[in-house]
Design goal:
The radius of gyration is 12 Å and the shape is elongated. By secondary structure, it is mainly α. The chain is built from two helices and no strands.
Length: 48
Protein backbone atom coordinates (compact mmCIF):
# COMPACT_ATOMS: atom_id res chain seq x y z
CA UNK A 1 0.00 0.00 0.00
CA UNK A 2 1.18 3.53 -0.68
CA UNK A 3 2.72 5.30 2.28
CA UNK A 4 0.37 8.30 1.96
CA UNK A 5 -2.69 6.03 2.12
CA UNK A 6 -1.37 4.27 5.23
CA UNK A 7 -0.65 7.57 6.99
CA UNK A 8 -4.15 8.83 6.19
CA UNK A 9 -5.72 5.56 7.44
CA UNK A 10 -3.70 5.67 10.67
CA UNK A 11 -4.70 9.29 11.26
CA UNK A 12 -8.40 8.38 10.98
CA UNK A 13 -7.91 5.44 13.37
CA UNK A 14 -6.31 7.74 15.96
CA UNK A 15 -9.36 10.00 15.70
CA UNK A 16 -11.50 7.12 16.94
CA UNK A 17 -12.70 5.38 13.77
CA UNK A 18 -12.76 1.62 13.50
CA UNK A 19 -10.12 0.06 11.27
CA UNK A 20 -12.65 -0.87 8.57
CA UNK A 21 -14.21 2.60 8.46
CA UNK A 22 -10.79 4.26 8.39
CA UNK A 23 -9.71 2.03 5.49
CA UNK A 24 -12.86 2.82 3.50
CA UNK A 25 -12.56 6.57 4.04
CA UNK A 26 -8.83 6.67 3.28
CA UNK A 27 -9.32 4.54 0.14
CA UNK A 28 -12.10 6.81 -1.14
CA UNK A 29 -9.93 9.90 -0.67
CA UNK A 30 -6.77 8.26 -2.08
CA UNK A 31 -8.57 6.86 -5.15
CA UNK A 32 -10.17 10.20 -5.98
CA UNK A 33 -6.75 11.88 -5.97
CA UNK A 34 -4.84 9.00 -7.65
CA UNK A 35 -7.09 7.44 -10.33
CA UNK A 36 -4.20 5.63 -12.04
CA UNK A 37 -3.03 3.84 -8.87
CA UNK A 38 -6.10 2.92 -6.82
CA UNK A 39 -6.03 1.02 -3.53
CA UNK A 40 -8.59 -1.53 -2.43
CA UNK A 41 -9.39 -5.21 -2.48
CA UNK A 42 -8.14 -6.92 -5.64
CA UNK A 43 -7.62 -5.50 -9.08
CA UNK A 44 -9.94 -3.13 -10.85
CA UNK A 45 -10.96 -4.40 -14.27
CA UNK A 46 -11.59 -2.01 -17.11
CA UNK A 47 -14.83 -2.38 -19.05
CA UNK A 48 -14.50 -3.00 -22.77
Amino acid sequence: MPKGYEEMRDKFMKEGMSKEAAQRKAARIWNSKHPNSPVGKGERRKKK
